[in-house]
Fold this sequence. Notes:
With 579 residues, this protein is α+β, with helices and mostly antiparallel strands. It has helices at 116-121, 123-126, 130-152, 193-201, 239-258, 271-278, 307-310, 329-341, 367-376, 392-409, 455-458, 487-496, 501-515, 529-536, 567-572; strands at 18-31, 34-41, 44-50, 66-75, 88-99, 156-157, 175-177, 185-187, 206-214, 226-235, 267-270, 292-293, 314-321, 348-353, 356-358, 383-391, 420-424, 429-432, 437-440, 467-472, 475-482, 522-528. It contains 15 helices and 22 strands. Strands 6-9-10-22-21-20-17-11 form an eight-stranded mixed β-sheet, sandwiched between helices. A five-stranded mixed beta barrel has the order 1-2-3-5-4. A five-stranded antiparallel β-sheet has the order 12-13-16-14-15. Helix 3 (130-152) packs across helix 14 (529-536). The chain is globular, with a radius of gyration of 30 Å.
Amino acid sequence: MNRTHNNGQLRISDVGTKVTLIGWVAKRRNLGSLVFIDLRDRYGITQCLFDEHLTEKVKDVRSEYILEVSGTVIERSSKNPNMPTGDIEVKAEDVTVINSAKLPPFIIADDTDALEDTRLKYRYLDLRRPVLQQKLFTRAKIVKAMHEYLDANEFIEVETPVLAKSTPEGARDYLVPSRVHPGCFYALPQSPQQFKQLLMVAGFERYYQVARCFRDEDLRADRQLDFTQLDIEMSFMSQEEILTMTEGLLKKVMKDVKGIDIETPFRRFKYHDAMNMYGSDKPDTRFELKLQDLKEVFANTEFKAFEEGKAARGTIKALVVENGAHYSRKETDGFTDLAKKNGAKGLVVLKYVDGKLEGSAVKFFSEKEVQDLTSTLKLKDSDLVLIAAGDWTRTCNALGALRSYFGKTLHLYDPSTFDFLWIVDFPLLEYSEEDGRYYSVHHPFTRPNDEDLPLLDSDPLAVRSYAYDVVLNGYELGGGSLRIYDCDMQQKMFEMLSLSDEEIEKRFGFFIEALKYGTPPHGGLALGLDRVAMLLTGSESLRDVIAFPKNANAKCPMSDAPTEVDPKQLEELHIRIVE
Length: 579
Ligand code: ASP
């Protein structure tokens, strides 16, 4: 084709130049004997002007037709300062219709009120919208910066299988039936975890992969069934060295993509401290509003609702919202609901007005408790006090959710800042009352902290691990750990997770065997690429940075996947559907 320039390129200095442009019709206006058409391509939009000699040729042209327009660049009489090409237009001398287009189901422009499912059904049209194109360009830039950094640091990119054996990351597996082995299934990887560790056993020392992972989970705005991780593993590196390497990577990404110099090293918070102060293991520290401890104030309280909080593994904590006394009953009921949704059994709502503590719970407090509470929390007039009590984790999480809510609604932070931090010293295990067993907080390959090894049998919940998460603005960007590299310890870990010897052998026998052949100390992490892209493009949803995402119903509205299949295919796979 004869294209000489793209649609984002021409400026006032090009006036007088003969050009040929190609693009989609973004907009068309008829002004009597003149027709204006905005041509759009991935680079931008240029206005073209057709006079009476050509109006006949473009009379049937509609939105999204593709045109080739030849003409001369002229200065516009009414300039548009909002467009890079807004000083000029192209006075057409010839035009060819390259292709026609059906009327699109929605207008293709940055702002749209089309329903998301309509946009996803016609995703190829949705993706013509310049905002979405920019997001995917930014995503590509992020990946490029990552490749460059890792390459410069001697990492080797290795692909690992998609048809593999189950690897536990705490989600349900996607299974793929084997045609040649009736009744047998592959599992799609929840992550390449075991493979990357085996690459360390194999001696590669520094591995990475932009890896597709699959987890059968309920979808949320920040979850997709298939998603992409930047997966990394290193040998002979301390935890500190791994964190530093990762900081360097994120520093380069931020510089290349956003032009921002972020400060390193990132702040590090111990899991326990982050939970205590912010009620979250992925705290947004762009604003203060810390949780405050009231366990001592209520150590001897008679108040029934605080009973569980007084216990050894319990806590009693408060969140004080300055000038929050104005919230209505309906609003404070909403706060209680939010706390309950996040694990609290209830929420005590108090207001400090004219030097007096108000609220239905006050009558259960002793005079001393009221005094101590007021002084501990340094209450000021018109403060709102929200107190939760109970199991430590649940209570912290509940108040943490409220903290996030107030941070957002009271605009307590500058949304344009990027606040990176590490959470370290996660517990190794958590206990499920429901299943009556322990689960790994990270995954079963995570190495317990050497100092806590004596507690492994006596007090497993007190054992810390060498696991770490990197957090940005209240989102977990990624996480990883040092790994167990001793086969006996790995065997013991599976036992602690209540796997029988037979199960261990069947599921992980090959892996434990590999650890016996001189396994180097190693560790690594994975960054959620979709999430990094979401945050760096300021998007609300992961779907905005994935070309062809699933909707909230785990469906692809465009192709309709998942769909029923031909009975013959099922037969070949030895599968029968039971109603
Ligand atoms: N496999 C882990 C995950 O997907 C990351 C890691 O430990 O490297 O979360």
